[in-house]
Design a protein that fits this description.
single chain; alpha+beta; globular; 4-stranded antiparallel sheet; about 230 residues; two-stranded antiparallel ribbon
Length: about 230
């Protein structure tokens, strides 16, 4: 547990506010130029992806993958068969995402959100407070990058769903997002920032390329066993 930096203004005299390391890091970035932040690990990006591929996941004409109205996913979702059985329609959607503008992606997400909100599914409906919040994050992710992450997850969800960054923070006005991976035992912070003007440079890289992660959280982060500058 940690003591929040705003304890003196948020509590009565003599009290402190205890928080997790994730809350402490979120507070730091909210005070330093970011406007939105979530501690959601993989569920944050997966909610975006799940909405974009909703019809393919839940309405594809694949036999015997749904046997109950209470299923959150098709029975083959955790297998390699999921992608192979739907390869043609998934790749068509991926191509659409690559070519859509961010505004068009937000429109597609909004349509699915309004039609299906609250249904049992892989989507974490309460992860974002509203559609505007999701739209702000989408504005910070270049469509080719979003398509690449989507393809990787859909090809092998069981394998790639683990290890996502703990925190996702973004500022839609500046079109900047940061993903932060924290290892609480050593307080290791790793993150990368995707900027619109870096799209061409990053488009050839894997969206999960660990070389894109740079530790730069003073006093809390470590990199290769050495303390970062204060």
């Amino acid at each position: 547990m940690f003591i929040r930096g705003d304890s003196q203004i948020n509590t009565d005299a003599g009290d402190v506010t205890l928080c997790s390391v994730e809350e402490l890091v979120l507070q730091h970035y909210m005070e330093n130029g970011y406007t939105h932040g979530l501690h959601g690990e993989g569920s944050t990006l997966w909610t975006v992806i799940g909405l974009l591929f909703w019809d393919i996941i839940y309405h594809s004409e694949i036999a015997d993958v749904f046997i109950s109205l209470f299923q959150a996913m098709p029975l083959d979702f955790d297998t390699l068969d999921f992608y192979q059985s739907r390869k043609e329609i998934i790749e068509k959607r991926l191509e659409c995402i690559r070519n859509w503008s961010s505004s068009e992606i937000v429109e597609e997400i909004a349509k699915v959100w309004e039609q299906n909100h609250g249904q049992t599914s892989l989507v974490s409906w309460d992860r974002f407070r509203d559609l505007e919040s999701i739209g702000g994050l989408v504005q910070c992710i270049p469509p080719p990058v979003l398509a690449a992450i989507s393809q990787r997850l859909l090809q092998n969800y069981r394998h790639y769903r683990s290890g996502f960054p703990d925190l996702t923070i973004w500022n839609p006005q500046q079109k900047v997002k940061t993903l932060i991976k924290l290892t609480s035992s050593k307080l290791i912070g790793r993150f990368f920032t995707e900027m619109e003007n870096n799209r061409s440079q990053r488009s050839q890289r894997s969206p999960f390329d660990q070389t894109n992660f740079v530790a730069r959280f003073p006093r809390l982060a470590w990199r290769r066993g050495r303390s970062l500058p204060r």
